[in-house]
Structures are given as C-alpha cells and as structure tokens.
Design a protein that fits this description.
single chain; 200 residues; mainly alpha; Helix Hairpins; two-stranded antiparallel sheet; 2 helices; 2 strands
Length: 200
C-alpha cells in the first residue's frame, strides 16, 4: 500500500476515490448476478441438448449396423460450413450457433438401400447436436472466466479498496484535526505572550 500524504488535497483525492469505488461496486455486483443467471441458463440449454443428442443417438443406433453394409460411415456426412455469430452477454463476447451445412455427397440411388436417406439425416442431426454442444461448452467456459474476474473485482472493492480508502480518510481527518487543534493552541499561546509583553 503506497504511503498517504496527510494533506487536504490527499483527503479530497481519497474521498473522490471512495465515491468512484462505491459508484462502480453496484455495477460489478449486478454484472456478477447477470453472469450467474446466464451461466445457469446456458448450462440448462446444454443439459437439454445433451438429452436431445442422447435421444438422437438411440434413434441412430438402429441405423449403425445397416451403415456397416454401405462401407465408410465417416464419409457419409461431412460439414461444409459451421455458421456462428458473436453474441455479447454482460460485456463478454461469446460464440452463438447459427447454422450448419453439409457437403453434398452423391450416391447412387439404385445401389443404396431405402433406409439410407433417413440414416444420413439422423447422422446429420447427431453431428449438429455435437457442434451445438461444443459451442455451448465454449460459452460456459468464457462466461465462467468472466465471472471469476468479476468476482475478484467485487471482492477487491468490498474487502480491500473501500475499507482501505475509508481508513485513509479517517487517518487524514484525525491528523488534520490534530493539526488544526495544535494551530489554535499555538495561536492562543502566542496571543497570551503578546498580552503579557504588552502588560509588562
């Protein structure tokens, strides 16, 4: 902690600092609450997507053995473009899932079984869920990081800066009060001396 000066200018500086801290603290606390609410909301979305993915996985399990008949499963569906945009929550830039596009993979309708189209569509849905979950996980990660920083700032202001500044103001006021009292006492002593010298 830097040494404080016991002057009126320092007292004004400390009072201004205290006003700034007390004005900024509610904003930080509000941001912290907003981040906590958003994190809970995103985590809920993530749970719902996981449940939807699991349901899609169960639906696709019926196709898995059939896909084995056609050869390479990985070659059936390829992502051509994953579209995201940047959203802003409480000053945090987060990725937001927009859309997913797949490469057109041509296959011979006469050589593939009837269930093939439905199986490919089910696989596309599963891949989309996986990509959405990755983005939701990234959102939670970024929001948690910002929450940690904001919580540290709230604690710094509440537990360090504001009490420290109030203590500095108290010390400066005591010192200036003592100086003023000493000046009054010196003035009275000097006045007595002058009166005594005039009388004698």
């Amino acid at each position: 902690m830097p040494a404080i000066k016991f002057t009126k200018n320092e007292l004004k500086k400390q009072k201004d600092g205290l006003k700034r801290f007390e004005r900024y603290l509610p904003t930080l606390q509000l941001k912290k609450q907003q981040l906590q609410m958003v994190i809970r909301s995103v985590e809920q979305q993530e749970r719902e997507k996981r449940a939807a993915r699991e349901a899609a996985k169960k639906r696709i399990e019926a196709w898995v053995e059939l896909f084995g008949e056609t050869g390479d499963i990985a070659g059936l569906v390829k992502i051509s473009r994953l579209e995201t945009e940047t959203g802003n929550i409480a000053g945090v830039d987060i990725p937001v899932f927009k859309a997913i596009e797949y490469e057109d993979i041509s296959f011979d309708l006469f050589e593939t079984p009837l269930w093939f189209d439905a199986g490919v569509e089910a696989l596309k849905k599963l891949i989309a869920f996986n990509e959405e979950l990755k983005i939701l996980q990234k959102q939670v990660e970024l929001l948690n990081q910002e929450l940690r920083i904001t919580s540290q700032r709230v604690n710094l202001f509440e537990k360090v800066k504001i009490p420290e500044t109030k203590n500095n103001i108290r010390k400066i006021r005591i010192y200036l009060g003592d100086q003023q009292t000493a000046a009054v006492v010196r003035g009275k002593i000097a006045k007595k001396k002058i009166i005594v010298e005039k009388v004698s």
